Amino acid sequence: MVENYIFVAILLFVIGICGVILRKNIFTIFMSIELMLNAVALLFAIFARVNLNLDGQVIVMLVIAIAAAEASFGLALITLLHKSKQTLNIDSFKELKDGNAS
Amino acid sequence: MLVNIVILAPIIGSFLLGILYLSRRVLGLSQGFFAFLGMAGPVVSFVAMALLFANSYGNSLNLELFNWLDIAGFSINVGFYLDSLSLVMAIFVAFLGMLIHFYSIGYMDGDEGFGKFFCYMNLFLASMLILVLANNPILMFVGWEGVGVCSYLLIAFYFNDKDNVKAGNKAFILNRIGDFGFLIGLIALYLASSGVKFDYIGLNEVSFSPSVAIFIAFCFIAGALAKSAQIPLYTWLPDAMAGPTPISALIHAATMVTAGVYMVVRFEFLFAGLSLPVEVLAGIGAAGALFAGIIATKATDIKKILAYSTMSQLGYMFAALSYSSGAAMYHLFTHGFFKALLFLSAGAIIIALHHEQNIFKMGNLKDNKSLYYPMLFGMLAISGIFPFAGFFSKDAIILGALLSGHYTIFAILLFTAGLTAYYCFRLFFLVFYSQNPAPKQHKVPFSMLGVNYILCLFALGGGFMAIFLDINHPTLMVEIIAGVVSMVVSAIGIFIAYKKFYNYKNCEEKMGKFESIVANKFYIDEIYDFVFVENLKRISCFLRKIVDDKILYPLVELSALAFRAFSQIYARYTQSGLASSYAFYMLFFICVIIIFSKAIL
């Protein structure tokens, strides 16, 4: 039983990673990050169930709370980014690039 | 404790003098103040030393003061070993040091670096006392290097003159060559004696295997040859006369240069039972005595003549080490007194004649009795005329050589005694009796003359030092015969000098071919220059121009270039500024680290 849950968690995590790396839309990337967080939360929940204690559940609650906080920050940030460039394509935000190297 | 005062007084003195000299303009300190402070250290040190001498002469004392180093089994204590040898030597050093400090007040009068001079002199005295009194070879080496650096600083005291700086460097570098040997010897000694307490008492009980002992002995001899200016490391001593005259007297005649002899005697536990190193040393000493004596007969600079005679007399001491260290120490002490006297009276003459040092430009000074008598006493003492101190000690060495069967050394030393008398009285007659016009005379300060008179007494009566030393006495009859023989030899030397230079009139000396070679010091300096300096220069030029410029520098440049090219390519493809590619790198390298750590652990 546990293996199935872990398999689902890994699948979710990998989908999240692929989303972060491959997608261009910031909203989609953001959702993919949430997906990765959920995958981890699922693992914690599974292990808490297997080990018959509540520590994992507590951490899951913590993760959900922090994910909510992160979501509010992230959405505000995306709004600001959109305001400055009128686009949500991640490739337009290249300010981190070192001007001398190109 | 008295020994602390003996050592600390000059150290504190030099420290204060140094600090106050640097701030003399701010504080407005006068020369008198520096003179007082400069005298305080040596006087306190001498008084303490005299008390110490009176208290503990006759029984040897090993004082441990504190632990200096303690690293993983390597432990060195700072401590002092007071036996009859070190006590006599230390009181001799403290006494002469004090006198010469007093003399310097007159000699350095009005000099810009007055305070600095006394700072160095105090430091020298402290180092010399450490060298003499130390109870282990490492602490002795501290003093050994201390006197070396003071000698360097004082030779190059007038550092505005390039020649003086060169002379200082020469002394310093030649001494480093010797010290290199000494240091290797110390390390070998430490390794060979592992397990015992590393001081003279502990080392006394170690039995070294002969080959190791010979190796260490030769290393130490290298140090002694450099410090005591013997063949082949002697060329620094004549040049060292560039320093102020009190330095020549204190450091380069009476105390520091004799450190080599003292060291060999101090390490008797090592040298005893080894015939080879000591015989070699004696051979070098005898050859050096003759060689320096020959050069001295043609030198014209009053101080250089005395410098060569110092080297010659040190040769006597080294020669004596092979059969009687007592006689060597005896000559060390008497020589210290009369050579200091000679240098100091030469200094008085130099001051009186406005820094004229060429003996052929002096003349007819015999009416100035305050210059005449000290020089006469010194000359008689060094020539070995009864009853001056030099007679007894030199006779002890020459007779010792004969009685112990060193016939070659005996012959050389006896001949050198005549040579010594000749070149000394050549100087004496030229300065005091020749008809050459001398510059107008200048008044000599009292402090210089006073010290000269005191030293006159010691040049006359210094033979009493024999009571503190362990010297073999053959029968009285033998001694009288030997004394008469060496007196006759000296008298012949004096007579030749009298014939040639009494009422001498020419401002130069006529020279044949051999004589001009002698006057040029056998071109030893030039040979050294050619063999060592020039070749080193050539090698360094080769390394600089070919190896460095043509090989190493391009290599360095190339590697920098390659690195730059690589980094530019790398940066162009990786630093794209795209968040998703950065996220990919992060993920990729996290995976790599995980796999790597899994594979390793």
UniProtKB/TrEMBL annotation, chain A:
Q: Name one Pfam family in it.
A: Oxidored_q2
Reactions performed catalytically: a quinone + NADH + 5 H(+)(in) = a quinol + NAD(+) + 4 H(+)(out)
Q: Which GO terms describe its cellular component?
A: NADH dehydrogenase complex; plasma membrane
Q: Name one GO biological process term.
A: ATP synthesis coupled electron transport
Membrane association type: Multi-pass membrane protein
- Which PANTHER family does the record cross-reference, listed alphabetically? NADH-UBIQUINONE OXIDOREDUCTASE CHAIN 4L (PTHR11434:SF16), NADH-UBIQUINONE OXIDOREDUCTASE SUBUNIT ND4L (PTHR11434)
Q: What does this protein do?
A: NDH-1 shuttles electrons from NADH, via FMN and iron-sulfur (Fe-S) centers, to quinones in the respiratory chain. The immediate electron acceptor for the enzyme in this species is believed to be ubiquinone. Couples the redox reaction to proton translocation (for every two electrons transferred, four hydrogen ions are translocated across the cytoplasmic membrane), and thus conserves the redox energy in a proton gradient.
> Self-association or partners: how does it assemble?
NDH-1 is composed of 14 different subunits. Subunits NuoA, H, J, K, L, M, N constitute the membrane sector of the complex.
Task: Tell me what this protein is called.
Answer: NADH-quinone oxidoreductase subunit K
Q: Species name for this entry?
A: Campylobacter porcelli
Lineage of this protein's species?
Bacteria, Pseudomonadati, Campylobacterota, Epsilonproteobacteria, Campylobacterales
Which gene underlies this protein?
nuoK
UniProtKB/TrEMBL annotation, chain B:
Tell me its EC number(s), please.
Answer: 1.6.5.3
**What's a Gene Ontology MF term here?**
NADH dehydrogenase activity
| Pfam families, per the entry | Proton_antipo_M (PF00361), Proton_antipo_N (PF00662)
Q: How does it sit in the membrane?
A: Multi-pass membrane protein
Question: Quick one: where is this thing mainly located?
Answer: membrane
Where is this protein found? Endomembrane system; Membrane
Q: Which InterPro entries match?
A: NADHpl_OxRdtase_5_subgr (IPR018393), ND/Mrp_TM (IPR001750), NU5C-like (IPR003945), Proton_antipo_N (IPR001516)
What is one term from the GO cellular component aspect held by the record?
endomembrane system
Domain NADH-Ubiquinone oxidoreductase (complex I) chain 5 N-terminal: from-to ranges: 68-118
Record keywords: Membrane, Oxidoreductase, Transmembrane, Transmembrane helix
What is its EC class? Answer: oxidoreductase
Q: Where are the transmembrane segments?
A: 6-22, 34-58, 78-105, 117-135, 141-159, 180-196, 208-226, 247-265, 271-293, 305-323, 329-351, 371-391, 397-425, 446-469, 475-498, 582-600
GO process annotations (BP): ATP synthesis coupled electron transport; electron transport coupled proton transport
Q: Where is the NADH:quinone oxidoreductase/Mrp antiporter transmembrane domain?
A: 134-420
What's the protein here called? Answer: NADH:quinone oxidoreductase I, membrane subunit L
Organism annotation: Campylobacter porcelli
